[in-house]
Amino acid sequence: MKIAIGADHGGYKLKESLAKFLKKKGYSVKDFGAFSKEPCDYPPIGYKVAKSIGRGLYKRGILICKTGIGMAIVANKAKGVRAALCDRVDIARSSREHNDTNVLVFAANIVSASQARKITSIWLSTKATGGRHRRRVRQIKKIDGR
Asked: Is 9 a catalytic residue?
């Protein structure tokens, strides 16, 4: 699976750790930055990742900033993206089962590297359940113009 990943300076360290973990697991990872701890703005990075998911260039995306809120807001502006800010395994699982999320967002100030690895593993391996949830995802796609 091809995964796009990005972070601002506040999420840089967690991004680097998570990208290394994903590559070890055999995923193809495209890093959209930041490429250092130097202060940078998160919107351009988050939107580049999100657009790549919305256009189908990558199957899933992961975004990280200090609180995760900014990245989640930016990601959900891109057509075709359903981004969820997750800090627990059960929330990540539910985001996939019920909402068929395609972008996972982390708060670097809250989620440790080990928690992020567990959450990401569950998120990547969980399938959307369909049923009433599929109907709701279709409604979201309609609102999004898809």
From this structure: no
pTM of the complete model: 0.96
- pLDDT tens readout for residues 82-119: 999 999 999 999 999 999 999 999 999 999 999 999 99
Helices 113-125 & 89-99 angle (0-180, nearest 10): 30
Contact (Cβ atoms closer than 8 angstroms) between residue 106 and residue 92: no
Q: Which residue of the set 40, 86, 98, 133 is catalytic?
A: 98
The domain 2-143 belongs to what CATH superfamily? Answer: Sugar-phosphate isomerase, RpiB/LacA/LacB (3.40.1400.10)
**Cβ(145)–Cβ(79) under 8 Å?**
yes
Are 42 and 74 in contact by the 8 Å Cβ rule? The answer is yes
Which of 9, 40, 65, 86 is an active site residue?
A: 65
Cα within 13 Å of Cα(39), Cβ side: 0
Which residues contact residue 55 at a Cβ distance below 8 angstroms, ignoring those fewer than 6 apart?
80
Check if 98 is active-site. yes
